[in-house]
Design a protein that fits this description.
The chain is 55% helix and 0% strand. It is mostly helical.
């Protein structure tokens, strides 16, 4: 994690508890948080926009996360 460009974000949110049921988890909570933050910085303001951004940038996020 220390070599990741997202390490500071991950460190800041490390204490966030994931309250989702295990069987419903499709993605890691940290991935969702990082993608949402990056998306909002890029100007998205809806969950649909966040999903579209996450899908479009999946190769990049897979590499850095």
């Amino acid at each position: 994690m220390e070599d990741s460009p997202c390490a500071p974000i991950q460190a800041y949110f490390a204490e966030v508890t994931d309250l989702r049921m295990e069987r419903t988890k499709l993605h890691r909570l940290m991935d969702i948080l990082v993608i949402a933050i990056c998306t909002v910085i890029c100007g998205a303001d809806t969950w649909v926009g966040i999903e579209a951004y996450g899908n479009a940038k999946e190769p990049w996020h897979t590499k850095i996360l």
